[in-house]
């Protein structure tokens, strides 16, 4: 097979891969939308008015927008937020009599599959083939022990990222003590308060994830700390749009050196 044929096949393979990623994201996202919005809405009869229908259709429209733009921000951020809008308008959609433990586990697996699937397929791509390959003796030894330790830490954080929010939400929704307490304190508004606690659990988890998990991963994601600090300082200086003090000092020293050189030549010509 010639090099020209290989080069022609690469764009086709990239398009096929992107089409496959779009199909996977569409299937997983539609599953989340149906299981979290449509089926609960049908179960409690919350698709009667135009407003309820529009709110229920909003997440699907956001999903299609994310697929059309192939935007990670829309599919991983805006779409999950849009799923919560009809639930916020009608808290009965997330009440405990709609979600039993088994159905909650199935829906949680669907949400996890969507988040991981979209995160993987939107960021993964085959690297370009190298122009030449040279075997290195160090490559035969495998990754160093420190990289294997990092990989174990990453897998542990990934598992905790799945387990902790799932346990928090399940505890809020299915713990009988919480349900009894809400029934005593807020009679007639148990579903609303349960949904509010669920949102609070999600916000709590996002705070923990941002400050604790990403705080641990940030030095590993950004590489060498000294280099990162230098680059951050350079970016900050570039944003100001003004030269640094060392620039003015260098210009001043250059002007003094030029003046001294001119003065020495002038004195030398007079002495001659």
Strand-helix topology:
Layout: H1 3-44, H2 50-69, H3 72-89, H4 101-123, H5 145-174, H6 176-185, H7 190-222, H8 225-240, H9 245-271
Report what the structure shows.
This protein has 9 helices and no strands. The protein has helices at residues 3-44, 50-69, 72-89, 101-123, 145-174, 176-185, 190-222, 225-240, 245-271. The longest helix is centred in the first third of the chain and has 42 residues, at 3-44. The model is unreliable at 1-7 (pLDDT under 50). It has 3 domains: 7-124, no CATH class; 153-222, no CATH class; 244-272. By secondary structure, the protein is mostly helical. The N and C termini lie far apart (79 Å). Helix content is 81%, strand content 0%. Helix 1 packs antiparallel against helix 2 (50-69), helix 2 (50-69) runs antiparallel to helix 3 (72-89) and helix 5 (145-174) packs antiparallel against helix 7 (190-222).
Summarize this structure as a short list of keywords or feature phrases:
272 residues; mainly alpha; 9 helices; 81% helix; 0% strand; elongated; disordered N terminus
Q: Biggest sheet: strands, sense, closure? A: none
The assigned structural class equals: mainly alpha
H/E element string?
HHHHHHHHH
* Number of helices, counting only DSSP H or I runs of 4 residues or more: 9
3D shape: elongated
How would you briefly describe this protein structure?
The chain has 272 residues and is mainly α. The chain has helices at 3-44, 50-69, 72-89, 101-123, 145-174, 176-185, 190-222, 225-240, 245-271.
